[in-house]
Amino acid sequence: MRHGIGRGLLALGTAGSFLAVLSGASSASAAAPVGDLCLRAQQQTAKLDQAAFQNAGGELSNIDYPDKTSFEKSKPTEKPLVVGSYVTYEDAEGTLPKQIRCKSKRSDHLQLVYGEAVAGPEQECRTVNQTTLQEVDASFTAAERASLAYPASKVVVDGDIPAFTGWDWLWDFPPAYKGWDGKIHLPSRSLSVPWTWNALPESFRGQHYCTFVAPSYLKRMMLGQATV
What we know:
Helices cover 27% and strands 27% of the residues. The protein is α+β, with helices and mostly antiparallel strands and 228 residues long. The chain has one domain.
């Protein structure tokens, strides 16, 4: 199920968690709208400072693209700060999110537009998957935790796999796999283009694209309800 355009600012909570203040959005959890993840990804990868960003007149929103073709052609924008998301699903009905692709802006471009205090230094995509794991793990009831097929100790957040072109980044791969160690591994494919790469057109610079496991899919895997 698509959520279209979500608009709002990020409000940071304790322990690095987030609340996406959107029309009809819920708090950060495995059940939150999928577009919320790309808002968190923008905040985390660029280390966006909420107060400085707001004081500079910044607004952050997400566009959830309904098809891969429109997502491929899209670019995030810096002012207003608009990120993009594209979701793939476990099921044909589109009710069980599996993997989320996010297009966001790098901290160096945001510093240029809003001031040095708003962001930086740039972080890896894996940082977002790590927070997803922490939040999913915190969401389990006592009964669920007692029956976990894969507790958090058996989930590994892998380092980023670098991509060098947009087509390379869009290459399909599973958001999780079972490693030789018997643990679930969460990879992320990253395309990060610094604003200072002046040999490229402006529309290609200052971008950071990431792929993530959907929180609800990770929760289902840890419960043994989804195939790894």
